[in-house]
What we know:
By secondary structure, the chain is of the alpha/beta class. 37% of the residues lie in helices and 21% in strands.
Amino acid sequence: MATLLIKNAEVLVTMDEGRSEIKQGHLFARDGVIEAVGKDHPDTADEIIDAAGCVVTPGLVNTHHHLYQSLTRVVPGGQDALLFGWLKTLYPIWEKFGPEEFFVSAQIGLAELAHSGCSMSSDHLYLYPNGAKLDDTIEAAKSIGIRFHPTRGSMSIGESNGGLPPDSVVENENDILEDCIRVVDDYHDANPGSMLRVGIAPCSPFTVSQDLMREAALLARDKKVMLHTHLAENEEDIAYSLERFGCRPGQFAEELGWIGDDVWHAHCVKLDTREIDLFSKTRTGVAHCPCSNCRLGSGIAPVRAMRDAGVKVGLGVDGSASNDAGHMISEARQAMLLQRVQNGADAMSAREVLEIATLGGANVLGRDDCGSFEVGKRADIAIWDISGLEAAGSWDPVAALVLCGPMNVRDLVVEGKCVVKSGNLEEVEIGAVIEKQNHLAHRLADSL
């Protein structure tokens, strides 16, 4: 039985019910499960990590991503576009992807997340050109070592039928549902401590039919997996919903069965008061993606109102083509600053946004076994060295993580095992992956 001891932390940020912070704290885990948190600790363990001079937090949780987009960062023509124009610029590039592009791009995206303290990430993959499968990104996640919640996304309504994407990247709806069944049956692990859970995720109301939305919800509940999609992302999204369906996105979701504790929606920038109340009453989750929302000019999501109403909110980096990064601490800082810009300097504290980035994300993804340091929960641990330049002179080391830095973890532990150690990935030689990623990006650019 493998044991792990984290000792001498400058501050251990537990995110327990009382949001305890333990100075000179210690954490002991056995086989990936936390057995003790506090001032005292065993004398020995199979692996001992000295966290002197470090703040130790639960691993951060990313609730929305499109990992394949790491291969199309800062593409000319899409850099200054709104959502719909940005998508139309990128679709013709993405249709050239294949299994290799999806695998390598996911490796890069997950490696970037791991360095930024992320121990668990979702992914929304909704197009499958040239033989690509969800399996490609699943294999990439296994190679990096963080918990993975991939979702089998889809697009079925192309331009010829009034949808946004070109017909070349949409699929037959029966084929979509059959492959959803395949990936859930082959990969989904519902057990506590699971490293891999699969969800079902039609892309958005403007890329799939209402029938597919209904069938996806029925299938997900039959299989007992979660549902995910984009919703109320910007004014274009609202206008499309009103024109096409005669209702706002919240009503659209409600009528199709897309609310409940097993559902989380990405963005929700334009939710109104009624929709916020609906999400609160039904325990529907939200993936808040502040950097992408800023990049695409979508607006500021009403996170303060959501939190006050009791809506489950987590953070998402969104795709690296609309961010153009995948960095969780940057996302947390941006989330806090936007709420302050909109609602005042006391609207959101550094500690609240750290809670959203850890426990909040775990709650959105339905992981009551993760997100905090409590006996019986999983040992997902981010260790931040605050002895360097970024935090020099800071009086509050916990708030410094959001307001100052450091930007990357020294160590990241997932399920009791080191994924990042002394700033380096343990399982992958990242230089070779970067070289491959750049080669694929140049090849794509040349093909255009």
